[in-house]
Structures are given as structure tokens and as C-alpha cells.
Design a protein that fits this description.
Number of strands: 0
Radius of gyration: 21 Å
Strand content: under 5%
Helix content: 55-70%
Largest sheet: none
Number of helices: 14
Oligomer: single chain
Amino acid sequence: MQDLTGGSSRRVEEIDIVKAIAIMLMVACHAGVSFARFNQMFHMAIFFIAAGFFFRDSSSDSLCSTAKTIWSKYRKLVILFFIWNTVFVLLHNPLTRTNIIPAGAENVAIPTPDPSSFYTAADIVKRILLGLLFGYREFLIGGFWFFRVLFLITAAYCAIDFLLKKLTKGNRWAGLGGQFIASATLLFVGWHFSRKGQDFFSIPHVCSFYCLYFLGHLLALARSKYINWKWPIYLAILILSFGLLLYLNTRGYVGYNLNDYYPGPLYMLCCAFTGWCWLYSMAWFLQKIPVVSTVLKVTGQKTLSVLILHLPVLKVIQIIQALYFKTPLYGLASFPSVRSGNTWWCLLYVALATAIPVLLDVLYRRLTSPIFKKGEGR
């Protein structure tokens, strides 16, 4: 599988570490940790920034390269989306019978599922086909909203960048200025939608978070040309950014998955950028610790696997937990995890729901690698 930003042949080790920390923060939110609100201020924004970080200017040099980039992104994301959406659509009825995903499960555990929550054959076919348009409604793939938004943002960014290159005759600074205007405009439009609670095919999400993709592109340019700091500066950034995040946490909230209302466009952008600075400075230090660095870099390359599988893994852990403590199995319906009220359980959830998908990804690659190599040899 690819990482959550869609994959890149240009590995940047500290970015892998940043993404590893961010994906663990996402899992922590679903594991019910007490600091979930703090995480939610920026954890998904990190992946939009990281995707923009790896945007290639050559991707939008011509109409052909722009179309090729958009098609390549669609193909890479929709194949995985379609496969896993199909799997969970087919599992919907069996899982509903076991009270793992009954209607209303996000709020309360109910012992008997509503008959209307089962899919008919027509429902199954319809929902599988909707996967080709990044459409889904399955409980255990709630994080799949990111697929659609990332594709739409990438497509919009490439198309606008191509038009700007034509209008500015390839002037890079003028093109960046145009992207700045586009980002600012769309950000205010997205904020307007968030205030109204409106959503249609994730367009409001695209408007709100387009600026994060552009920010990632700017950060990549800055890193390659200007940033060559020593540890005292990174330490200062680490401390100051954490302090600012604590302050911002008292002033509002950002819900990336639903494009929930947030205090203002600059607030969301500040949360995202400050969160990036915090994780990036943290990654700079963690990169110096061999074992920790290796584990985080591998995790950062498998973020998509964690996104897809962490909720099912959480449910498996809950089954084991319910059997061990002899609690009713219909408690599995609670979202996102059984309310144990124990911090240690939450930490176990995070560790296992991150590690198991990563290990499955590594195992899958090792098992399939000889097959692919054999095919290439022919």
C-alpha cells in the first residue's frame, strides 16, 4: 500500500516521521484518549501539507502532464478505495448481525440491530459502484473521506497551476502569487460553508484545505533553499509551537472530517501550520535516535494501511477485551472504542491499532514480492 499522501518516490526521512506521529495521533483520537481534542486541531491537516510538500512543478507544465498527474492520482487512490469499500460493503450485514456496526452505534450500544440497517442486494451493488466515485457509508472506513478530498485537492491544484503557468508565461513567482490568491479565496469560501454546515461531494472540504496543500508546496521550496538550522532553533520551535497549540486549543476547535465550524480561516490555518512545526521539529530530534527513527520511518511509509485497518483492529481488540472482562458483546457497538475509562487501555489501543496494520503491510509486501519479481522475469 501507499502512504496516506498518495505515495512518493522521493523519500524525505523527517517527513516520514512527521506522518508516523500524525497517524498515531489520529488513532489516539479513535481510541478515546483524553487529549483527542488537542490532536484534532491539526493531525489530519498534516497529511494535506505533506501531499503538497511532494508536489512536482513539472506535473502541471502542460495539458498532457496535468491530465496524466490527475489520472495517476485517481487511479492510485480509487483502486484501494474501491477494493476496501467493496470488502466492507460485503461485510456490512454480517457485522450488523454481530452488533458491531448497528445504526446509531456512534452514540449508544444497542443489543438488537434495526432491521432497516441491513442492505439488500440492490443496496450492495449500488454502494460498491459508488466506490468508483469515492462514495461510501461504511462505519469501519470512516477515515475514507480523506481519499476523496485528497484527490479533488490534487486535481484542483494541478489544474489551477497549469492555468497560472499559461497566464504568467511560466513566471514562477507570479504563479505562486496566483496560488496564494486562489488559496485565500477558497479558504474563505470553505469557512462560509462550514458556518452554514453545508456539504456536497466534499467541495467545502476542498475549499477549506486547498491552502494546506499550497502551504506544503511552499514548505518544500523553503526547505530546499533556506532551512539549514541547528538543534537550538529546532528546540525553540518545538517548545514555542507546543505552547501556541495549547493556547489555540482553548480558543476553538477544527473538525477536518466534517469541515466543522471553526472560529475563522486564519485560526484553522494557524492550527495546521503550528501543528506541522511542532511535529517537524520533534521529528528532527527523533531522527537522531536509531531504533525509534527506524520504526517511525517505516510507520510513516504505511500510513494508508493504518487508515484503512485501524478501526477493524480496534474492534478485534474490543472483542478480546469483552471476552476477558466478560462484558456484553453488544458493547462493541460503542464508537470508537469500548469506554473502559482506563488510560492504559487507550495506549494499548493506539499501539496495536498502529502496529498491526504496519506489520500486515510489511508481511503482504514480503509475500507478494517474489510473485511480482517472478512475473517481471518472464
